[in-house]
Amino acid sequence: MAQHAGEATDAPVSNGLGRSVQRIEDDALLRGRGRFVDDVALPGMLHAAFLRSPYAHGRLNRIDVTEAQVLPGVHRVFTYADLRAVLTSDRIPLAMPAGAIRFDVDPFVLARDEVCHVGEPVALVIADSRHIAEDALGLIAVDIEPLPAIVDPRGGLAEGAPKARLDCPDNLVARAAMQYGDIGRAFADAAHVVAEEFHLHKGGGHSIETRGVVARFDTAERMLTVWDSTQMPHQAKRVLVRSLGLGEHQVRVIAPDVGGGFGPKFVFHPEELAVAAASMLLGRPVKWIEDRFENFMATAQERNQFWTVEAAFDAQGRLLGIRGTLIHDHGAYTPYGVALPQNSGTNLLGPYVLPAYDLDIRLCLTNLVPATPTRGAGRPQGTFVMERLLDRAAVHFGLPREEIRSRNLIRADQMPYETPLRTRDGGLMVYDSGDYPECQRRALDVSDWAGFAERRAAAVRQGRYRGIGLANYVEGSGRGPFESAAVSIGPSGKVVVTTGATAQGQGTATMLAQLVAASLGLEASQISVIAGDTAASPLGLGAFASRQAVTAGNAVHQAAMQVRAKILAIASNALEIDESDLELMNGRVSLKGAPEMGMSFGQIAGSLAGLPGMALPKGATPGLAAAVDFQPKGMAYCNGTHVAEIEIDPATCSIIVERYTVVHDCGRLINPMMVDGQVLGGVVHGISSALFEWMSVDAQGQPQTCTYADYLLATADVVPRIDIHHMESPSPLNPLGIKGAGESGTIAASAVIASAIEDALSPLGVVVRELPMTPGRLHALMAKATRDGAAA
Amino acid sequence: MKPAPFHYHAPSTRMEALQLLTELEDARVLAGGQSLVPMLNLRLAAPENLIDLNGVADLAGIVMEGRRLTIGAMTRQRHGERSGLVREACPLLAHALSHVGHQQTRNRGTIGGSIAHMDPTAELPVVACAMDAVVVLESARGTREVPFAQWSDGYLATAIGPGEIVAAIAFPCWPAGHGWAFEEVTRRGEGYSIVSVVALLSMGADGTVDRCAIAIGGLGAAPVRADAAEAVLTGVAPGDEAIAQAGEAASELEAEGDLYAHEAFKRHLAKQLTLRALRSARDRAHAGGTGHG
């Protein structure tokens, strides 16, 4: 760490880590003063509604908008051809480079001649109100000739399957192999092989705030401003610039307060471009707020994976190799590359030594909304597979589940641990730090694993099954290539942070303000943070891959330290006091212990702002500001162990999660309270996936669970107290030693719940191969196990 | 998710409401709105006229008429749940109401709305079924009463006629000291039930069951009485063996599988919840019919 600039003067300065500072966002949010996209109201603003495909697949023969067009209050009804007039290409250019992709399937702004999933936008009505716009939807006559739909990716990859898209030669949109080691040898030498099949399902993002866009095109200035509920304003700007043929100076994207991202708002959806194009064509501001029904049908979601895998073990229960196939339901378009199943494949390794690996991943186009990452981003599935295989092997070898894991865990003295896999940026997947065996040991300890037998016996006396489960995981966080942050102080003395990072409600502003405040001797609440505005930060990536604390956090820390250094240098010169005798406090720099002997930040900033024809302070460069684009050297791998205890009532087949323990290691904690919040939210999302969330689609591709009465999320009454404990293994890859924490809570939840269910039902020999584990599914499993038991 | 245009009417008297209902084409009445408003927003319902009953004062209220507990249609579910009169006269109803939706929706949702909507997973119709409740209908033509057994007319449909509103539900109360129980299994916590069971028992001085009612919801479009199970118990002491037989009988009822629960699971639940409900009703009867549970 010594190579980092500013390190020498760092020592006496608090770096801001480890303090549970109150969130600076909350005052406005809790008082209803947040400003979300739907709060944007502009003079002359019109409202949009989308006509959406009622079919999963069909040929779009004709759209007649005549009747809709004349409904009073309707301004325009746009079809693909109308919007194409202002677009530079037929499709929205979203392709991400990946060798695995066989053909790019970029989406259209509105369906052109084929609809490929239920909910795909077909026409756009602009009216005086959303009510009128929705009335007009019913007046549009659409002639769609239904075509066979691909719903199950296994069928979609079969010989002679109908095509999910007429413009693709087949449905195998991408194929990737993850291979290393001598897999043949591993299985030839195996003392025992575990073979399993899993059907894994994961749900959507389900942010409280749905998607939404307001677009305003100023025809005089030819300037497009878009308020967008997105995780990625800079990416949205790039797509808009390219699609609309505008210059970077003509497009500004603002992500105001965002009521949750969780993945889907990473993806640029057709509506974002359609609303912007409509605003250009009409010369009026246009607002579109997605309703919940649309959110279920048309927002990207995670869905189905089908795994067929086998694991080879030596006689001591050590892994020799894993091989198998993964068939992944990709959906109808590729708005986000193919990282989702790749994360599943790479994360399968988890914290274990796996000498050989051979996974064939096939992505099948289906006539369903695109599958893109939601919190956890495919990792929970990989973790599920590995953890289930270990539990199966433990049963075979007669080993306790913690013991078979201990025999396979990477040891602390092997860190940094180089796996033979490559990440998607081409580098080797290297675990940077951590003590996985100690993490598991602590989890067993704090969850009172040893005392479980008594709790089980008590449940049995009440006629209930009780089980305990265990799962370990890692998560690659802090993905690059960079993030930007700048700190500036003007003559007003106000400290302003601008960043390319974006806030989705997770406390990004507090996190950044806390780090800056520590360097400048202020409180977090005294710092203004502007995130999510392309006009404020020319570069930026945004919120994904549990990355912003790592990337923007280090960027802002370095920027703040540069500003600090400048304040000290200027003040030392002006006050004729040695820098080492100065301190920063309450917006002033002064002689230690003598606050009156000093200058305010505003005075220093004023002296650096320049006066016409006057000299700057001797040797000084203009302005009191610094900007840093932090480029992480590699992914920072956080890790953790989850232990869950559940009870099953055999009469009702209901599963109650009774206890849940997390030991979590995301390196140095910036704000422990906010990290706990992230982990807690992640675990709840994971429990929700394991037990409740199910996006059901019928054989024709019609989604069947498009309200929260049908699609269940975990609610407070079904979530237990979740105990969170931290270890802090600093990442050597960034100066602050931080790792990400945004998604990791979800990653082990499905695996640990399945482990607990199997443990509870071990008298019946039930194996969990399918998610979510609903009461109906559990009943079928228990009934089958009981029949099999009786037959045997 | 915005409703189609409709004309909104807010009558203040019962007569005015019934008049509007007779005169207006394609009209729906709005009670608590917990089901109708989402249906309007999803455009699953798009009536031309909406007659809001919330301003009609004399449609709410709870009274005892002899042994009949009569609850006005616009009585909020939460009001029924907390009513001393309901708890005293019909503890089963007060208890079952505490399982309807969530407290926030019960503050708004009405007893009549739930009976008129007849959601297959709703709790209130199961109670009405077990208690042989009577639905009191009113129209400009007058009043008529429909026994609950004749109320359902298929999925989300009832015997209500044109121009009629549900004015009240009358629950014939069971004698003091009866045993009762409500059991349900939900898809998640306090959510929609998969199967729910109501049991009512009254026992003679000799300890045998002189009257028994078991209603099961969730198996099909409307709750059904478990006649065979009732027959098993009537006239005998409600011992574990008799209850087990009744449970078996309940498991033989017809069930329709749906997206969330297959037929075999529903029948399994019908049996298990019948067992639980009967044991609990028996225990309450033995304890002399304790109040609100």
Set out the fold topology.
The complex is a heterodimer of chains A (792) and B (293).
Chain A: H1 7-10, H2 26-30, E1 46-52, E2 58-64, H3 66-69, E3 74-78, H4 80-84, E4 114-115, E5 121-127, H5 130-137, E6 141-146, H6 153-156, E7 172-180, H7 183-188, E8 192-201, E9 212-218, E10 223-228, H8 233-244, E11 251-254, H9 270-282, E12 286-289, H10 292-298, E13 304-313, E14 319-331, H11 339-347, E15 357-365, H12 379-397, H13 401-408, E16 417-422, E17 428-431, H14 436-446, H15 452-461, E18 465-477, E19 483-489, E20 495-499, H16 508-520, E21 527-531, H17 548-575, E22 582-585, E23 588-591, E24 594-600, H18 601-609, E25 624-630, E26 636-649, E27 654-665, H19 672-691, E28 722-727, H20 744-747, H21 749-760, H22 775-791
Parallel strand pairs in A: 1-12, 10-11, 14-15, 20-21, 27-28
Antiparallel strand pairs in A: 1-5, 2-4, 2-6, 3-5, 7-15, 8-13, 9-10, 9-12, 13-14, 16-17, 18-26, 19-20, 19-25, 22-23, 23-24, 26-27
Chain B: E1 7-9, H1 14-23, E2 27-30, H2 36-41, E3 49-52, E4 62-65, E5 68-72, H3 77-82, H4 84-89, H5 91-97, H6 103-106, H7 111-117, H8 124-130, E6 134-139, E7 142-147, E8 165-172, E9 179-186, E10 193-203, E11 209-217, E12 224-225, H9 227-233, H10 240-251, H11 263-286
Parallel strand pairs in B: 1-3, 2-3
Antiparallel strand pairs in B: 4-5, 5-8, 6-7, 6-8, 9-10, 10-11, 11-12
